[in-house]
Specification:
The chain has 20 helices and 6 strands. The chain is α+β, with helices and mostly antiparallel strands. Among the domains are: about 50 residues; about 45 residues. It has a 4-stranded mixed beta sheet. Strands 1-4 form a two-stranded antiparallel ribbon. The longest helix has about 35 residues.
């Protein structure tokens, strides 16, 4: 809950009420990560007794609501009502397990090689990268494995240096664009001043107050770590469940918004009975209904987007492929009759579990370069399958110019080994 300074007690209470609710109903609600939304809703419930928040038990792996204490999809069971995973599982073993499950079968060997090359800090140094490449892992395979590791593990894992790890983590941090740009300059352009504690000089160069810099640094201290942390230290939490799950039901692909599986919002019945007597009660009910309405609109938007993606990409999803048909965020916005920025906020920092079980960033389901992926999928499905060099030539005949390395990358996404 955000509050502002005030001298008088009554205005301060009114400001606290208005700022808290306005935060919940702002345009950033759609872009807010699921964990931040849960924390914000719980904080609002602590402030406003009219709002009732129930946290329902969910599967710690896929985010689906539990039925009779077990997940209907992956079979995970809750322990004594607690759905958190066992704390004895180390971060290292969790990364091994999750990477094997998330990666395509064709990348299994490359995943094992890259994991073995990580140092105790979770970094893949320049020397280790050279060793991985010498052991038969191609550059495209290496890029694909790193993407899988960062999807299921710490965002900065497999970076070459601590500085690169911080920048990678920064790209995945829940920050507004202006905050992210300033944070990037703090870690790069102003790194020397930052190390010397020259916040005033940084603020002068950025034309802002030292307090703005100090506040952002405090937040970065909570969001970023110098190393991913895969040694023998404290275990990291389990990876976040996907935001969307695509599954087959009745021969069709349907989408499930996992966030709505774990939260239930309502207005306290006792407040409903007292609504007509006290103005403060009526204000609390109004604020609670505003929060509930906005959260439900968020879930509705995510559901509509998931339904659109499930319908548009059904052939690829049913085939277990990531060679999706072309779809831009602009086209999706037109089909859903919303502004393009709404789609952008809905996609940011979210992940989806496909019908095949693969976990991908939701943004990968958008783009025009899927034309090339679809063409590679078509050519690689012929028997006998042509080598990558021949696929490049056949694509060029269709007017699609791709390098051999790009073809290899798309082929690996399809789960096809080199020929």
């Amino acid at each position: 809950m955000i509050t502002g300074p005030s001298v008088q007690a009554a205005p301060r209470a009114e400001l606290r009420t208005r700022v808290s609710v306005s935060t919940m109903v702002s345009a950033t609600l759609l872009a807010m990560p699921a964990g931040d939304l849960r924390d914000a809703v719980l904080a609002e419930a602590d402030r406003n007794p009219a709002l009732v928040v129930r946290q329902r038990p969910v599967c710690p792996r896929c985010g689906r609501g539990l039925a009779a204490g077990a997940c209907p999809r992956c079979g995970s069971a809750a322990r004594g009502g607690d759905v958190e995973p066992a704390a004895t599982v180390s971060a290292w073993h969790a990364l091994h397990r999750d990477a094997r499950l998330a990666a395509p079968r064709a990348l299994a060997g490359a995943v094992a090689t890259v994991l073995a090359a990580l140092d105790e800090r979770g970094l893949l140094t320049a020397a280790a990268r050279r060793d991985v490449l010498r052991h038969g892992v191609g550059p495209a395979q290496l890029d694909a494995v790193i993407e899988v590791l960062r999807a299921v593990g710490p965002p900065g894992v497999a970076a070459a240096t601590p500085a690169e790890s911080l920048l990678v983590q920064l790209g995945a941090a829940p920050l507004r664009p202006a905050e992210r740009a300033l944070a990037r300059r703090l870690l790069t352009v102003h790194a020397g001043w930052l190390e010397a504690g020259e916040l005033a000089r940084i603020a002068a160069a950025e034309d802002c107050s030292p307090e703005v810099v100090r506040t952002l640094l405090t937040r970065l201290g909570r969001l970023l770590r110098p190393y991913p942390g895969l040694g023998d230290g404290p275990s990291r939490p389990a990876p976040r469940p996907p935001d969307l799950i695509f599954e087959v039901a009745g021969g069709r692909v349907r989408a499930l918004v996992t966030e709505s599986e774990g939260l239930a919002l309502d207005v306290d019945p006792g407040y409903l009975a007292a609504a007509g007597r006290l103005a403060s009660v009526r204000d609390g009910m109004r604020d609670a209904r505003t929060v509930i309405s906005r959260v439900q609109r968020r879930w509705s938007m995510l559901q509509r987007l998931g339904d659109l993606l499930g319908e548009h990409h059904a052939p690829a999803l049913l085939a277990g492929s990531t060679a999706f048909a072309p779809l831009t965020q602009t086209k999706a916005a037109q089909r859903l009759r919303v502004h393009e920025s709404t789609i952008s906020r809905a996609v940011a920092h979210r992940h989806a579990r496909l019908v095949s079980g693969q976990l991908i960033a939701l943004r990968r389901m958008f783009g025009t370069n899927h034309d090339a992926r679809a063409a590679v999928a078509e050519l690689c499905s012929t028997v006998p399958r042509p080598p990558d060099r021949r696929v490049v030539e056949l694509l060029a005949a269709r007017g699609i110019v791709l390098s051999r390395r790009a073809v290899a990358k798309y082929r690996l996404e399809l789960g096809l080994p080199a020929r």
